[in-house]
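Q: For a teaching session next week I want to show students how multiple molecules come together into a single three-dimensional assembly. I've collected the sequence lines for a complex. Could you give me the predicted structure tokens for the whole thing so I can convert them for display?
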Amino acid sequence: MLKYTAKRLLYSVLILFFVMFLIYVLMYNMPMGYVETKARELASRPGATKSYAEWLADLNAQYGMDKGVIQGYFIWLGHAVRGEWGDSWAWTIPVTQEFHNTVWYSFILGLVSFIFEILIAIPLGIAAAKKQYSFTDYFTTVVAMVCISMPTFFLATLLKYVFSVKLGWFDLSGMQGRNYLNLSDFGKFLDVAKHFVLPSITIIIISIGGLMRYTRTNMLEVLNSDYIRTARAKGVPEKKVINYHAFRNTLIPLVTILGGSLPGLFSGALITETLFSIRGIGYASYASMTQADIPFIMFYLAFISILTLLGNLISDLLYAVVDPRVRFS
Amino acid sequence: MANSNSYLYEALMAKTAQKETLKDEEIHLDDISRVKVLSPGRQVFKRFIRNRLAVFGSMLLIIMFLFSFFGPLFYRYGQKQIFYKFDKQNVNYGMAKENTAYNGYSIDSSIEIERPVVNAINSNIKQMIAKGQDHAVLFGESGVYALQKTGEEIYVLSQLGTAPVCTLGSGTVKVGVYDSIRKSISFSGAEIPGLVEAASSIKGKGGVVELEGISYTFTKGVGKSFDITAEMSGIQYSGEVPENGFEEALEQAVQEESAAFFFSETEFITKANGSMTEVFRVNSEAPARVFSRLTADTRQLGQQVSEEFRVGALLATADGSTFSADSRTFTVAYKDDVLTVLDEDGNEYAEFTVFSVRRYTGEDSMAYDLKKAIVEHIAGMEAAGLKTDSLVYALPQQAANGEYVYDDDGNLLYNDSEMTISRRDTGEYVINAEQVIYVIDMFSPPTSKHILGTDGDGFDVLSRVMYGGRISLMVGFVVVFLECFLGIVMGGLAGYYGGWVDMLIMRLVDIFYCLPSLPIMIILGATMDALRMDTYIRLLIMMAALGIMGWAGVARLVRGQILSLREQEFMVATEATGIKVKDRIFHHLVPNVMPQLIVTATMGMGSVIITESTLSFLGLGVKHPLATWGTIINSVSSASAMAHYAHIWIPVGLLICLTVIAFNFVGDGLRDAYDPKAKR
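A: Of course. Below is the structure for the complete assembly, covering every listed component.
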């Protein structure tokens, strides 16, 4: 087990190395006007202490752009491994600081949505599987399909239109109300929470469909297995068959996939956060991407890649932990 | 009885015969018609059409394709066709204001006036008005000019030819420069006799020379030259001394602080210079420009007057009352204090007023009586202290297409229109009236002409939706095709060869699986924005990038399938019969992967359409003149547009949803149909 984990970790690091290399090559080959524009802008800012040529040389040196792509990558990697991610151009603070400022909003948004997603999707999936081909089953299937097929931006706009414009229950975007500063601490908390409602609903609806279908498929598989038939043949009450025998076995793939998506809670919802102006990491990274903030983009992409790899690793390990039949070789 | 018996017998026989024939027709086990054998494809099809959701999805897709690919052929509007309309809008019709600036007209354009003098004319005239003067002298860099009021609001600027006469007052005056090598003095003013001889004593740093009671100070200047200054007081003549009595006249002029005075029919002008006053004699006077706040309004609509006419009329107020301009002769007269120009027949031709009424664009195309009515109304408003008031007067009638309406004789037709006159804080009056103008038909609500209305560019939304569907569906197809192509090749190679090829390709798959595709697409879009790339090239790059980033999943699927198929008997058979490796992979292995692949591709189509529309919605995918479903929603995504133009984005958004749902239903249905055992 330990050996397997170590092997997988090393393997993930190797993949990360190449993924970041690909991203670096992409960034490196972006039109050089990019860095030049930035240097020009920085040099012409009021109070700029360096000239355009100095900024250009500085920026090129900072990102190893003045070296070849391979050498430059290793220089960047050397800095990154030591935790020196540089200063964000768009946010004018160290990249790591901007990360700390934003990631917790994303996490809270992700966590709340995640909890609701589980609470809604799993019972519905099980209910659909219990009565295959019933109205509930068809209804759940169609709802799941609609949720999967809904583009985030359309759903977000639709929710805004209905709940903000027509009903006026929520603000269109942003994280704080107009009189936020006059509120008590608890009032402030409620105000921010209220602003998180629509984004959460968006994320829940978008992600609910997949989990619902997954639960249904797995539950059906379990219900068709021999031990369930045995349990029924023994005369175990149907309630107990479902809740005790079937559900616990359905949990194996569910826990695996849910555990694997835990790191994703930190990755932020790029589109949703941008559309609702929630200052999470998705919003920050989108703004950085459109403003060519290379240090922050590199950091964010590395972060996302690490989270993806971590998610795969966790779900593989959980699979063995939860299901005693599985042993690593 | 016999009859009855025979009848029964016959019936029995008939029944037996019937039984016999039936027995012959009975189906045998090996009868081909006993089991209706379906080909595998037919079987899949049969299972597929039994799935109601899948059939619904297929219908939706067929409709969507017909709508997008054939719809534009039968629809009357193009995707980039801009629609216009004539709209009655309350526009800024005219502007009425009191002219504050004095405009110059050339009397003699051959005389050049220095720029600073022309620029300062307005302030000089205002200064004259404030002081109640009729005459002022302006000094330029080199020339001297006189500004003479010749009539109400009429000022003539003349260039003066001058000669210095004398200086007055006490102070230090620069006399000249003494060159100690050449022993000569270049005098600034008139020559002072005897000073050159007296200067011979000057050496080194300079000194003081007394001559005729005046002390001249020599100060070392550049090289061997000395600047000569003198303390002067009283009148110092330079050159010819005028007749007796000049000094009294000059003294009076200085006391009155007047810039010019006459003495023995000669004009003299004074120029204050510190504590000294320089006096010049005017030798010549050439009128160059006439400045006036008055603007000409002709009685006849549309008649324009030339500069010659204006100059003639403005000057005629002072010297005689007739002038000729544009080979016609006119007479000027003041009628009710208004400078009026009469033509040869004594009819009123034009008049000059300080208060001008013009169309808002500045052109003079308003009828004379309308102008008069507006001016009178404004006078009434001023008296009553109103800032806004309305006036009903006849304006040229406009047809529905914005053109003016003429009667049979070619005269303009008028109809009474309501105008609103409002005073701005800057003092001018703006006249608003309803006018029919030609505008782009923006954000038109759904009508019978435009079923989904028009968008912010005046494009027909329904037509955009059709063309947008083409691109969105095409992007889906191309990207999925690319993904599948790459995936099959890579996955096929990895699965068939195994070993290090498999190892290498699968590590590549892992890397591509880990690449965050949406952020990379956003960065790519922003970069292409920065490069101002052509929208068609963007489309191609976007499709290529999406394909390259999506093949890993397909490769994984194909490899997995091939790994299990490879061990089956038919593959051993292909090896035994010596079929080429390429054919073995792509003719025998890949077709067996097809069912899974088709399902994945169908589902993938939906997700590609979502990705593309998301990018276009963010403005980083396909760009403006080209329509996709994403860009159509993007064009009305701002908070206010979103609230007001729901008739544009809701149908388009639903269309995206329906298409993706249809692809997913069909994909689901296909999976169940291909593999009924897996159906849960």
